[in-house]
Amino acid sequence: MKYFEEDLLDSFRYKAHVLTKEQEEVLSQIGEAFSAPQKTFGMINNADIKFGEVTNEDGERVELTRGMYSKLIEDDDRDKRKEAYFAYYQPYVQLKNTIASTLATAIKNNESFKAEKLSICLGKILIWRSSSKRGL
Questions:
Q1: What's the predicted TM-score (pTM) here?
Q2: In terms of CB atoms within 10 Å, which of 11, 51, 63, 70 comes out highest?
Q3: CA–CA distance, 80 with 60 (Å, rounded to integer)
Q4: d(Cα 127, Cα 125) in Å, to the nearest integer?
Q5: What is the three-class DSSP state of 131?
Q6: Are 20 and 28 in contact (CB under 8 A)?
Q7: Are 27 and 120 in contact (CB under 8 A)?
Q8: Which residue ranges make up each domain of the chain?
């Protein structure tokens, strides 16, 4: 009985966070639509964004990369930091309306989940963490 005690306690503790079979089915059907804003921003951020050019340490004009930005933004030369900053963030400024719309949709999705009492994700995460700590 002691072996099952922790699992039984978890069941009671997380009962409010457990969906019915019908709710789980609805959630799985709308899950992809609700993840669209995150996927959209991921595509913009990881595939579509092209940063401007900067002057590298050899004095050559090269396309800025995220790795190069990390180095240049900490450079002692203020002009290099400024050039890197604007080259890095200008593409985001050009897409500000698309990014804002994507963020607004993500916020509306989160509010919809709250309104429907579907904040089950937190409960599931807690259950998963609890289980993984016990090696299940």
A1: 0.63
A2: 51
A3: 13
A4: 5
A5: helix
A6: no
A7: yes
A8: 1-19+119-136
